[in-house]
Amino acid sequence: MGDDLKRWNDEERRLFHHMKIMKQRAAQNFKNATKANGAESRWEKFVKAGPPPPPVADQQIFVRFTGADSARRVVKFESVAVGDLFMPFSDEIHFGERVGLIGPNGTGKTHLLNALDGKSEALAGDITFGPRTSVGMFNQINDRPEYKGRQCVDIVRDKLIDEQKSMGALARYGLRTNAKQEFQTLSGGQKARLEILMLELAGHNVLLLDEPTDNLDIESSEALEMALEGFEGTVIAVSHDRTFLARFSRFIMITDDGAVYEIPDFELALAGLSEPDKLSTLRLAKPLTA
């Protein structure tokens, strides 16, 4: 028997025993009736909530992304702009690439990511996805109104059906003890872990990540980085986490003046971020705007 279940049984017996004593006292003195009714209500409420879920051994957090195959060209940008945040640019992203969207705050990186997720009303130009693409979005705000009021295990069970498998999946993300906790009461890091788990279970082959490591602890961040190493799909991410970005294959940088550049590796991207006014002279930095 797991420790959580043993504690539940001990508490249920204590509440039941207390209720029986209070009922005996109420039978002898009607002044104790209110206390007896309160004790009975507490016991009934506790029993109705039920015992904790079956124990699952804690495991090291391990993320598995297994996105299905998609066409060679995953995304095509044609004269794309979002409002007046940046100048129209054109580019293509291919299957298996890890592309970081970088640049100063306020230049429109998250707006571009939202446009890829189909959520930008100010989009100009065309964004076209290749056939057989399935897009999943990780949002740094973890705003999931459809999860509000629902327990973690129920959210995961939507995908896995079986409760034991759902508990096992939560345990891999260090969320076993939060299984019966409602989504809106989770910490930022716990919400991020659950979000990543749901992306994994959905089987997307294009992942859009908005500051994915912001609310993660070190272990969870490392788990995400390891998962993306083995992910058979395409990743497009907005991030200021240089450790996370170091694993990416190329970068699209948006400058304060709205210019958009392709930068082919991490070291050059760091140089561009440190001296953005010299980006146009940076070796191998390719302008994507006309």
From TrEMBL:
Instruction: Return the InterPro entries for the record.
Output: AAA+_ATPase, ABC_transporter-like_ATP-bd, ABCF, P-loop_NTPase
Keyword Nucleotide-binding (UniProt): yes
Q: Which residues form a coiled coil?
A: none
Q: Which PROSITE patterns does the protein's record reference?
A: ABC_TRANSPORTER_2
Provide any one GO MF term from the record.
Answer: ATP hydrolysis activity
Instruction: Please list the residue ranges annotated as the ABC transporter domain.
Output: 63-282
Keywords noted in UniProt: ATP-binding, Nucleotide-binding, Repeat
UniProt-recorded name of the protein: Unannotated protein
Tell me what organism the protein belongs to.
freshwater metagenome
